[in-house]
């Protein structure tokens, strides 16, 4: 992404107040209680066990820890996790703007 | 969304995937656009579900990622169908049963004819058969009921209306017969002959040739109206018809008693009630003697019955009714009048109510043993014609 393009995009965001995930490739994470978790815009599963799931994002890794984690469905860029979710950690590789 | 729509119809495979990099396999699958769900860590790998149609695309992906899989569950219609296909005969039987039921339901099983009195069922059924309505005919091959009933009406003579109704597999043909003129009874060729000796008082030939004239004296068996027309060479026989009346003498011996005994009920009555068990009767009610001088007993039995079976169990009632005897003495004149009336009634009963009594003559009269004896001669004008069939004299 070019410098100008990125700046243009940042500017459009500001002007049109669009959600970030639409324009930038950021994940949208929906958490319902500690039971269900929906992640959109992920980049694949890195690790998967009943205690921990690690997902690749466009810039970084999302770690989900908990008990009895099950991937309810994978549908393209959308992923639904079920189980008792203990924590969500975001390991971002800071990208320069 | 847990599973794709209609996943049961499309078939669902449960897999157990093992390998060093199950995650990579999952990513590869996702990238290939295959939907997987219910991904659970199990053992050293993961179990997941996917549609049967996607299953065959997995092989290259497995090879790519170095994973192994084995199928742990199959659900859905395709697998059911396959299992059923293995039991072909069973499936065929299932199908055959359904088809058989459908075919048997679409068949005419019985035809009933209602409302006919003169025309035989068979005639109507035969006509219906020609119109294509008969047992074991397919219902879909039947014509419209109104058309059929029209055809049947024109096919069977003597029907004024035909209604055809189908209820399930049975057909009811309702008919109304046309009214026909009454058929005249058939007569054989005959003469009219005299029944007794008489003097003809009137003769009227409706058909045939009158042979005797008015005031002619005829003997018993003499031909009055002949059924033979023409001369001796050309003879034609007809049914002689007509009315011949004649004067006939009847002699009656009448005896009338002068004392008349008659008995009548006084109204006094005694009832007895019995319980009948087989051949025995046990009296329940009305013990004791009645004390009537003269009586008549009526017995009534009411046996228990079930449908047409009568049981040996029931009630019997006896009614003993008192009689009283009256003696009435009549005068000889009254006795005479009664005797004559009886004789006249006898004449009317024997020789027809249109007989007329021309005269009566008491030839002899005496009283003896409390009775009146009379000999009376009646002169009666009555019908004297009698039929005599013409047989066997043809072609003589």
Provide a descriptive summary of the structure in words.
The complex is a heterodimer of chains A (97) and B (396). Chain A has 97 residues and is of the alpha+beta class. Chain A has a domain at 25-91: Sandwich (Immunoglobulin-like), CATH 2.60.40.2000. Chain A is 19% helix and 52% strand. Chain A contains two helices and six strands; from the N terminus they run H-H-E-E-E-E-E-E. Chain A has a six-stranded antiparallel sheet with strand order 1-2-6-5-4-3, with no helix packed on it. Chain A is elongated, with a radius of gyration of 15 Å. Chain A starts with a helix and ends in a 6-residue tail after the last strand. Chain B is α+β, with helices and mostly antiparallel strands. Chain B has five domains: 7-81, ACT domain (Alpha-Beta Plaits), CATH 3.30.70; 110-177, membrane protein fhac (Ubiquitin-like (UB roll), Roll), CATH 3.10.20.310; 190-243, no CATH class; 254-258 and 330-386, no CATH class; 261-328, no CATH class. Chain B is 24% helix and 46% strand. Chain B has nine helices and 22 strands. In chain B, the strands form six sheets. A five-stranded antiparallel sheet of chain B has the order 11-9-15-21-20. Chain B has a four-stranded antiparallel sheet with strand order 2-3-1-4. In chain B, strands 10-12-8-22 form a four-stranded antiparallel sheet, with no helix packed on it. The longest helix of chain B has 20 residues, at 332-351. Chain B is elongated. Chain B starts with 6 loop residues before the first helix and ends in a 7-residue tail after the last strand. The relative contact order of chain B is 0.09. The mean pLDDT of chain B is 87. The interface between A and B is medium-sized, with 16 and 20 residues. Strand 5 (60-75) of chain A pairs antiparallel with strand 2 (36-42) of chain B, so a sheet runs across the interface.
């Amino acid at each position: 992404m070019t410098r100008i393009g990125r700046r243009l995009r940042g500017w459009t965001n500001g002007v049109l107040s669009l959600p970030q995930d639409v324009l930038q490739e950021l994940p949208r994470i929906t958490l319902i209680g500690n039971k269900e978790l929906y992640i959109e815009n992920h980049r694949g599963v890195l690790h998967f066990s009943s205690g921990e799931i690690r997902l690749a994002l466009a810039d970084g890794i999302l770690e989900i820890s908990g008990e009895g984690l099950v991937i309810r469905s994978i549908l393209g860029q959308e992923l639904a996790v079920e189980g008792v979710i203990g924590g969500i950690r975001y390991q971002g590789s800071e990208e320069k703007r | 969304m847990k599973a794709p729509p209609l996943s049961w119809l499309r078939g669902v495979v449960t897999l157990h995937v093992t390998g060093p990099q199950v995650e990579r396999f999952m990513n590869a699958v996702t990238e290939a656009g295959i939907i997987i769900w219910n991904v659970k860590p199990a053992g050293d790998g993961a179990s997941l579900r996917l549609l049967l149609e996607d299953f065959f695309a997995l092989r290259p992906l497995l090879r790519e990622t170095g994973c192994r899989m084995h199928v742990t569950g199959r659900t859905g219609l395709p697998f059911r169908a396959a299992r059923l296909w293995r039991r072909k005969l069973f499936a065929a039987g299932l199908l055959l049963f359904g088809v058989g039921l459908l075919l048997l339901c679409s068949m005419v099983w019985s035809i009933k004819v209602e409302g006919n009195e003169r025309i035989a069922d068979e005639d109507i059924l035969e006509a219906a058969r020609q119109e294509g309505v008969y047992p074991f005919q397919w219902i879909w091959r039947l014509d419209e009921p109104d058309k059929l009933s029209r055809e049947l009406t024109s096919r069977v003579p003597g029907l004024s209306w035909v209604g055809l109704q189908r209820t399930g597999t049975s057909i009811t043909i309702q008919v109304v017969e046309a009214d026909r003129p009454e058929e005249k009874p058939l007569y054989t060729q005959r003469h009219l002959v005299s029944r007794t000796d008489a003097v003809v008082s009137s003769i009227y030939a409706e058909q045939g040739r009158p042979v005797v004239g008015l005031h002619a004296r005829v003997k018993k068996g003499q031909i009055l109206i002949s059924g033979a027309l023409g001369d001796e060479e050309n003879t034609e026989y007809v049914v002689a018809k007509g009315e011949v009346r004649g004067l006939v003498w009847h002699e009656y011996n009448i005896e009338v008693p002068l004392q008349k005994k008659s008995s009548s009920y006084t109204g006094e009555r005694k009832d007895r009630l019995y319980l009948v068990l087989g051949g025995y009767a046990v009296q329940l009610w009305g013990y004791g003697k009645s004390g009537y001088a003269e009586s008549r007993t009526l017995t009534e039995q009411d046996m228990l019955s079930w449908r047409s079976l009568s049981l040996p169990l029931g009630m019997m009632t006896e009614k003993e009714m008192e009689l009283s005897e009256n003696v009435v003495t009549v005068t000889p004149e009254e006795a005479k009048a009664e005797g004559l009336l009886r004789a006249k009634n006898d004449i009317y009963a024997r020789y027809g109510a249109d007989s007329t009594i021309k005269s009566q003559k008491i030839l002899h009269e005496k009283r003896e043993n409390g009775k009146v004896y009379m000999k009376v001669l009646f002169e009666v004008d009555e019908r004297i014609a009698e039929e005599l069939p013409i047989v066997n004299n043809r072609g003589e």
